[in-house]
## 1
Amino acid sequence: MRRILQLMGEMKNYQLPQAKRAVQEMAAEEELVIVVSEQSLAEAIQQWATSQGYTVSNPRKSGEGMIRWQVTVQKAAASGERPPTGAPTPPA
């Protein structure tokens, strides 16, 4: 499932903690698109999420007029859950 976390307009001191909390609460195989107003914040989210083992896209600029930065974070399936598509299934 894909969700969007819009942090535009939030106080700068709360944006990174809010992003971290949302990423940590993600379910397996979930995807979270985080939208922020500054490139430096997008890069900080990317660095943190990568260090935690999440799959993270490079920050990208989007929108016209008011510039936004987007970072997409994906959480892999936890061990013991269904294998990724195309992976062999272990014998029963």
Note: The two ends are 29 Å apart (CA to CA).
## 2
Amino acid sequence: MVEIRLSRHGTKKTPFYRVVVTEKRRPRDGRFIENIGTFDPAGALNIDTGRLEYWQSKGAKPSHTVDRLLKKRAKEAAVAKS
């Protein structure tokens, strides 16, 4: 099964994450199919929405954390519009 999840990078105590599409059985920081964005806990979530929609149409499921980040981003965008 294909999953959209975070891959941890950065240095000790200053994490930086990549949003990747990978097989569910692969290690957290292991090989991935495609890098579709980044997440900096001190900053924001940057993601290629076109590729996200493409992978979701192919059956990829976001992890719990990525799903939560996407919902938070959508909520902030809705507040900014109004």
Note: Residues 2 and 23 are 5 Å apart (CA to CA).
